[in-house]
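User: Sequence in, structure out. Go.
Assistant: Echoing your sequence, followed by the structure tokens.
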Amino acid sequence: MQDEESFIRRVKQHDQEAFARLYEEYFDKIYRYVAIRIGDKMEAEDITQQVFLNAIKAAPSFKWRGIPVSAWLFRIAHNQVVDYLRRKTRRATVPLGEHLVASGDDPQLIAERRLDIERLSSATRNLTPAQQEVIALRFAGELPIAQVAKTMGKSEGAVKALQHSAIVALRKALSVVQDK
């Protein structure tokens, strides 16, 4: 992406071309992050759209501090996820895993995928909230450690430690499940 400071200046001035480019560049990453965090495809789409609407509204007050635009967007996404989880009521939802299986797949393969998704989802729920956030930003959002650190307001060392402990915990949880 072009020089971020001049790019964000264009976004702040409601330059439609600049905002369209921002949307195209980050929509998929923000969507994956949100989907991993909430586990509901339809809600994730709505929340992702809301992230970009909030970015449009907040753009004029954005202050350039050398922090990547992606960190700003992921902070907005994080806040949207937190708001969603706070107001979420008990209602029937289809788990994210249901949408990952194509209808023409082999029934045995479908069952194995669902089981793998359930295992990973269950193991991830046992992580601390900070570990879940790091995993979602790093692997669903595809952010480098430096950007995850800025997004979370932590040092790079803290993010590396959280990522390491999360991966160790996931490996342990998943290996225990396989041994059964």
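User: And one key feature?
Assistant: The helical segments are 4-12, 16-38, 41-58, 69-87, 107-125, 129-140, 145-152, 156-179.
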